[in-house]
Design a protein that fits this description.
This protein is α/β, with parallel strands linked by helices and 310 residues long. It contains eleven helices and twelve strands. α5 runs antiparallel to α6. It starts with a strand and ends with a helix.
Length: 310
């Protein structure tokens, strides 16, 4: 067994039970700035706040939280602690299209490898965020458990990151538009009550809205149809359903996925504070492995247009 650690950042939404299950011992804690101006390390485990209270505080669209990358000094400490213990590092960060975390980790890597030339550090830009990053990190841990080396595991994640999909409704795009996490937000900014926009990741590391549906039933039916056209080997997968204060909807979507695709497991997860600050309340989406995202999302757009027509 190769001896290396896998370190995600705080946007991964991996709570303590998941980190313990998949042997994730450290993560890089990003910062969250509260409306009153004070700053804290983003809480992956909801120990200081609970998801319901956090997301309900944003429901008026006047309470705005801001986020920042993990402090460089903190990243250096976590990396160096593992290097001193004789462990190499695979760091998997959220999309560089959204944050400077990946670039900061590369700088820390250069500094530390000069000090520890016998050790190895590989940083991977996931081109994903939130629960999609969770899925990639879990894939990496499973690859490591199979006996893959640091280099083999990093290569596997690089080769498969554009196969991680998200699909599910948002109540609206206010927070995503405000923080620039939707690439084509202008076409969908004026979403109406009861209209649910749906997005998947593009190859630039941003979410791209593909369509919108009236009502949750139509939206969830579209999720299943979209998954049919994109998922690969679902029965072999651990999938996620992530939500931001929509627990009942998450359970319904999970049951639909289990009935249709019979995956190994579907984990329901709260979107963490770090990404929740930009997503806001109202997301309920599936995260799974499928065919590689096409250039300019030509295949995905055509698939969604076909679903919209039927």
């Amino acid at each position: 067994m190769f001896d290396f650690v896998i370190i995600p950042d705080t946007s991964s939404d991996l709570t303590r039970p998941l980190r313990e299950r998949f042997d994730i011992q450290d993560y890089l804690g990003g910062l969250i700035y509260f409306p009153d101006g004070h700053c804290e390390v983003s809480d992956l485990d909801w120990e200081r706040y609970d998801p319901k209270t956090f997301y309900e505080s944003m429901s008026d669209k006047k309470t705005i939280y801001k986020t920042a990358s993990p402090p460089t000094g903190d990243t250096l400490k976590i990396f160096e602690k593992n290097l001193k213990a004789g462990k190499d590092i695979l760091c998997i960060t959220l999309s560089s299209a959204l944050s400077g975390t990946y670039q900061a980790c590369e700088l820390v890597k250069s500094e530390l490898l000069a000090k520890y030339p016998e050790r190895k550090i590989i940083c991977v830009d996931s081109m994903r965020y939130s629960t999609a990053l969770s899925l990639l990190v879990i894939m990496a841990t499973m690859k490591r458990q199979e006996g893959a080396s640091l280099e083999e595991t990093a290569k596997y994640i690089e080769e498969n990151k554009h196969r991680v999909h998200q699909m599910g409704p948002m109540d609206d795009l206010f927070f995503l538009c405000k923080t620039g996490r939707i690439s084509n937000f202008k076409a969908f900014f004026g979403t109406l009550i009861g209209i649910n926009p749906m997005a998947d990741f593009n190859r630039k590391g941003l979410s791209e809205v593909l369509g919108k549906f009236k009502g949750k039933k139509a939206a969830f039916d579209a999720v299943i149809k979209y998954m049919r056209g994109t998922v690969e080997n679902p029965e072999e997968q651990i999938m996620f359903v992530a939500h931001s204060n929509r627990p009942a909807a998450a359970e319904l979507l999970r049951d639909m996925i289990v009935k249709e695709f019979n995956p190994k497991e579907v984990i329901i997860n709260d979107v963490g504070m770090s990404c929740g600050a930009s997503i806001g309340p109202g997301l309920c989406a599936a995260f799974y492995l499928g065919r590689e995202i096409s250039e300019d999302m030509e295949y995905e757009k055509a698939l969604m247009n076909k679903i919209l027509e039927n």
